[in-house]
């Protein structure tokens, strides 16, 4: 990425195209995680435009990826601020506004996942404990402390369970 | 196309990120990593729907919570009245057997079953085989220890100590024939 960025800064249009195609897909995904499917493309596009305007004058000591990520975060923040101001107006009007738009789960996928989780639970009961603690709001450092394991072991447990779950879902 | 993660130190956080278990700084680090790592981004994208269900679906979270609660039941909590009574009965049944076994194990003094003289060489004329100064005995003592010293006394059938072959010496067992 940094290599492409340097080439684009030196006027290589192909490199610039590659960077923005690459970034747009990722920005869409990251924005979707935070704001849902409705506004994710707008936010990603907005972030890409800002990057396109500013990257040629970017200082050489600045790392491109963290900077681009920060631009996206700012755009997501702006979106929430805008939502909040609109929500205030609507609440004053006596209506309820939903900030998050949770995706409706496909019942088949849900049952399939549930079946696989039960199988995994027999092989690796710790995965359930971790998921429970996550649903209670704990983060990895606290979870590893509670389970009395090293954080790296926790990540290994999680990734192994993920692999089992993915294999089970595929089968 | 790269198939391997470009930075495994951050890439190891993959599933923790998917289920939102990372703190804010680690999430930011992982998302920055996603901008450049094709392998991690592909993995995250492929598993997007499943991770959404794992994070947000109330039915699944409910099932997971109840199963984890059952799993977390402590050792002492599993002792109910019937299990305690059963354990007591088993202990009462086993205890006499244990006592019998321990009394058997404690008897350390054992009698010698037999002593077999194989060949004798002595300087004594009354018991002479040849004119050497030593005798060679072979005897059987079940369960004796090799390299352990034993004291042996040999008497005649009339319980008289044989002066000619009176033997009261420390011997070292070097070979045991089973």
Task: Describe this entry's structure for a reader.
The complex is a heterodimer of chains A (171) and B (178). Chain A folds into two domains: 2-92, Rna Polymerase Sigma Factor, Chain: A, CATH 1.10.1740.10; 107-170. Chain A has eight helices and no strands. Chain A has helices at residues 2-9, 13-35, 37-54, 64-92, 107-123, 126-135, 140-146, 151-170. In chain A, helix 1 (2-9) crosses helix 2 (13-35), helix 3 (37-54) packs across helix 4 and helix 7 crosses helix 8. With 178 residues, chain B is mainly alpha-helical. Chain B folds into three domains: 8-71; 76-106; 111-178, no CATH class. In chain B, 45% of the residues lie in helices and 6% in strands. Chain B is built from seven helices and two strands; from the N terminus they run αααααααββ. Chain B has a two-stranded antiparallel sheet with strand order 1-2. The radius of gyration of chain B is 40 Å and the shape is elongated. The A-B interface holds A 1, 22-23, 25-26, 29-30, 65-66, 68-69, 73, 102-103, 105-106, 109-110, 113-114, 117, 121, 125, 128-132, 134-135, 138-141, 143, 152, 154-156, 158-159, 161-162, 165-166, 169 and B 12-16, 18-23, 26, 28, 31-32, 34-36, 41, 44-45, 47-50, 52-57, 59-61, 63-65, 67-69, 71-72.
Name the descriptors.
heterodimer; A: 171 residues; mainly alpha; Rna Polymerase Sigma Factor, Chain: A; 2 domains; 8 helices; 77% helix; B: 178 residues; two-stranded antiparallel ribbon; 7 helices; 45% helix
């Amino acid at each position: 990425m940094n290599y492409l960025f340097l080439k684009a800064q030196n006027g290589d249009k192909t490199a610039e195209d590659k960077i923005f195609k690459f970034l747009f897909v990722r920005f869409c995904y990251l924005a979707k995680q935070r704001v849902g499917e409705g506004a994710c493309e707008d936010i990603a596009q907005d972030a890409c435009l800002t990057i396109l305007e500013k990257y040629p004058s970017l200082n050489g000591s600045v790392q491109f990826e963290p900077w681009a990520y920060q631009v996206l975060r700012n755009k997501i923040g702006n979106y929430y601020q805008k939502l909040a101001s609109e929500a205030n107006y609507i609440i004053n009007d006596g209506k309820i506004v939903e900030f998050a738009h949770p995706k409706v789960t496909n019942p088949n996928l849900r049952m399939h996942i549930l079946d696989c989780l039960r199988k995994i639970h027999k092989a690796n009961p710790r995965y359930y404990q971790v998921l429970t603690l996550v649903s209670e709001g704990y983060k990895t450092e606290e979870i590893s402390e509670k389970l009395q394991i090293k954080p790296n072991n926790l990540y290994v447990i999680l990734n192994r369970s993920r692999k089992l779950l993915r294999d089970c879902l595929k089968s | 196309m790269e198939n391997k993660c470009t930075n495994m130190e951050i890439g190891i956080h993959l599933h923790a990120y998917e289920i939102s278990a990372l703190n804010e700084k680690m999430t930011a680090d992982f998302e920055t990593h996603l901008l450049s790592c094709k392998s991690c981004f592909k993995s995250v994208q492929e598993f997007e729907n499943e991770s959404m269900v794992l994070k947000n679906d109330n039915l699944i979270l409910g099932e997971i919570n109840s199963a984890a609660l059952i799993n977390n039941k402590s050792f002492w909590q599993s002792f109910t009245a019937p299990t305690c009574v059963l354990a007591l009965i088993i202990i009462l049944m086993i205890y006499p057997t244990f006592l019998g076994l321990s009394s058997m194990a404690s008897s350390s003094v054992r009698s010698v079953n037999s002593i077999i003289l194989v060949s004798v060489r002595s300087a004594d004329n009354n018991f002479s085989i040849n004119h050497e100064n030593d005798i060679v005995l072979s005897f059987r003592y079940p369960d004796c220890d090799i390299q352990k010293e034993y004291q042996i006394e040999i008497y005649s059938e009339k319980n008289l100590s044989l002066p000619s072959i009176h033997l009261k010496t420390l011997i070292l067992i070097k070979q045991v024939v089973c």
